[in-house]
Amino acid sequence: MDKEIFALDIGTRKVMGIVATQHDEYLEIIDAHMLEHEKRSMLDGQIHSIEEVAKIVKKVKENLESRLHKKLHKVGVAVAGRNLRTFKSKVTKEFEVETDITSAMVKGLELEAVNTITANPENKVSGFYCAGYSPVYYELEGTRISDLIGHRAKSIACELIVTFLPRVVLDSMFAVLKKADLEATNVTLEPISALNAIIPPEIRNLNIVLVDIGAGTSDLAL
To answer: What is the largest CA-CA distance in the chain?
Structure first.
């Protein structure tokens, strides 16, 4: 079943809203609307005036709702990588007998890798939110592999790169969305969002530099 998506890019200079339908093989853009901030309510990707930013977000949302004749309640957002902290984490899971690997097992393995970072007091991430993660590689019986799902094994592993942002960055974003009568269903970092949008999975292990040049921040991801 096709899924409808509403996404917001709340940038230093402007706010862009996009409504799309997720098909099996592609994303179909249904409508988009952009407005510039009326005041300097954001600096370097950080929200300074929650009221002013919320006003622009609400206008973008209402313009899309008016044209599409429907209400928008849930939204996905990406945030700039300012002041982020990055960690790598690897976990291994052993089974007593060979087991069919499911998507739920892989997701559980990834979440366990994230939890090993948050559970370690030396990492000092209690004042941070996990903004996203990306698999570096998976292992099947000690051998690296691009996809674990469907294989049989007694041992699987994954290494993730996990990014954290200060709570104040995301708390201000959530406050803006609340004032615009929106609920965030997905939050990620702009470099991760750009990666998924423009770089095919089959070339992501070829030493790529991804540069996102914005009005307030420029993100560099390797």
So the answer is: 62
Which parts of 71-222 fold into alpha helices (H)?
Answer: 103-118, 167-179, 190-198
3 state DSSP class of 164? strand
Which residue, among 44, 6, 43, has the nearest Cα to 27 in the 3D structure? 6
- Please say whether the beta carbons of 135 and 205 come within 8 A: no
Element (H, E) at 156: strand 152-166
Closest CA to 202 of 149, 142, 157, 147: 147
> In whole angstroms, what is the distance from residue 44 CA to residue 146 CA?
36
Whole-model pTM: value is 0.76
Query: What is the tens place of the pLDDT at every residue in 135-146?
Result: 889 999 999 998
Whole-angstrom CA distances from 221 to 14, 132, 211 are 23, 13, 7
Q: Report pLDDT digits (tens) over 108-155.
A: 999 999 999 999 999 888 888 887 788 889 999 999 998 999 999 999
The pair of three-digit structure tokens given for residue 22, joined into one six-digit string: 């997720």
| Residue 77: burial class (beta carbons within 10 Å; 0-12, 13-18, 19+) | buried
Nearest to 182 by CA among 49, 6, 46: 6
